[in-house]
Amino acid sequence: MANDASAAFDTLSPAVFKGSLADPFTPPADSSLWRKNFLLGAATASYQIEGAVDEDGRLPSIWDTFSATPGKVLAGDTGAVACDHYHRWEADIDMLASLGLEGYRLSIAWPRVMDAAGRPNRKGLDFYKRLLNRLKEKGITSFVTLYHWDLPQHLEDRGGWLNRDTAYRFADYTDLMSRELAGTVDAWATLNEPWCSAYLGYGNGHHAPGLANDRFATQAMHHLLLAHGLAIPVLRGNDPASQKGIVANIGRGTANSDSAADQRAAHLFEVQHNAWILDPLLKGEYPQDLFELWPGTEPLVLDGDMQTIAAPLDFLGINYYFRTNVASDGAHGFRDVPLEGVERTQMGWEVYPDGLRDLLTGFKKTYRNLPPIYITENGMASDDKVIDGHVDDAQRISFLKRHLAAVDQAIKAGVDVRGYFLWSLMDNFEWAFGYERRFGVVHVDYSTQKRTVKRSAELVAKFLKERKARV
Ligand code: IFM
Fold first, then answer.
1. Residue 331: phi, psi to the nearest 5?
2. Residue 193: active-site member
3. Is 377 considered catalytic here?
C-alpha cells in the first residue's frame, strides 16, 4: 500500500440531496426513540476541539507532529487552536445543555494529563475534573473515551502501538484517570475506533503516525486491543459504578454482483472492517480470513493475550457512517466500485442507513454475547454556511432522521441499542481533512470562534423537549 497522503483527500463528488427542509424530523409515534431512557447526546474528541496544544504542561501528541508535516493534512491545518474548547468549555457545555442533549461523549488527551515519566499533570487533570463536574451538575450523562488517537509523541518515539510496552503504559494512564475521575464518569470507553488507529495510522499512513505496512497494522491492532483488555479490570477496580466498554467503527460492504468472487470480496471487506476488531473482543480470536486477505501478517500474540482482550464488556460503542460497494480484486482481496447516482455527503461517503440496521442485526446473530450497544457516533459532513444568522442543513436533518429510523428498526428486531450520539456537537478538526469538512450540528466560525446552532440541532432539541414533556 502506498504512503501517499494525497490518496487520503480523494473523495467522490457529493450527489445532490433531493429532500427538503420541510421534511419533519420528529420520529413516528411508535419509534423507540420516544422512550425516555433512550439516551440522545452528542460527541467530540480532544484533539479535534480543544486547541491549547502547548498550554499547562500538555506534551506533543502524534497528531501535532503529523499535522505539522507538509502534505499530511488538507490545507496544512492543525489542531493547534481547533474550536478553542480548552478555554471555551463552559460556554460549550451551556450550549449542549441548552439544546437539551442528555449525553456528552468526550475524550481525554493523554499528553495533557501525564508527563513522560508517567507522573500526573495536575493542570491537565483539573481541566477534565471541572468539565465532568459541570456535566454532572447539569444532569448530562458522560461517556469518556480514554484514547481518541492523540498518543503522546514520546511513546511513538519508542515505537508507539508497534511496541507492546505501549499497552502497559495505557493501563497506567487508565489507572491514573480512573482514580482521579471516579464517580464523575458514567461510562468509560477505552479506545475509539482501533481500526483507524491501526489501519490508517500504521497500515496506509493516512493518519498519524503515518506508517504504511499491513504487518504493522495487524501488530498495532493487537497492542491496541491488548491495551483495551488490560484497562478493563483497572477501570472495574477503580470506578466500579461506571459502565466500561470500547468504541468500534463498522463498515457495511456490499457485493457489486452475484458472482461468488464478488460475494467473497464483500465478506472480506467486512472481515477487515468489523470482524478484525469484534471477533477478538467478543470471541477471543482473530478471524482467519483476515490473513487470507493479508497473507503472512499474523501478529505476535503471547499466551493469555486473547483472554485479556476478550474481557467482558458492559457496552459496545458503534460508530457508523457509510457503505462501500466492492468487487473481487482478482487476487486475495477486494476493490471499491463506487456506485453511480447515489446520495453522498461532503466526504463523498454514501448515505446508506440500511447498512446500520443490517450490521446491528447481523452482529446479534454472530455474537451470542453481544453487549448492550450505544451508537457512539453517526452524522455527516456538509459544506454548511451561515446565512442571515442561520444554517439550514437540510441533508443532515434527513440523514439523522433516516439513521435514527434504522436504529429503531434494529431495536424492533431485538438488538439492545440504548442510545445515540450525534457526530459531532460542533464543526471541528476533521483529521487529514482539516477544517474544510463540517460534521457539527453547531457551526463554528474558526476566525471568530462564534458558534451558530444549525437547524438540525434546533430540531433535535425540539424533539427532546417534546419527549421530556410527555408523561
Ligand atoms: O471525526 C471522526 C471521529 O474522530 C472518529 N469517527 C469518524 C469521524 C468522522 O470522520
1. -125, -120
2. yes
3. yes
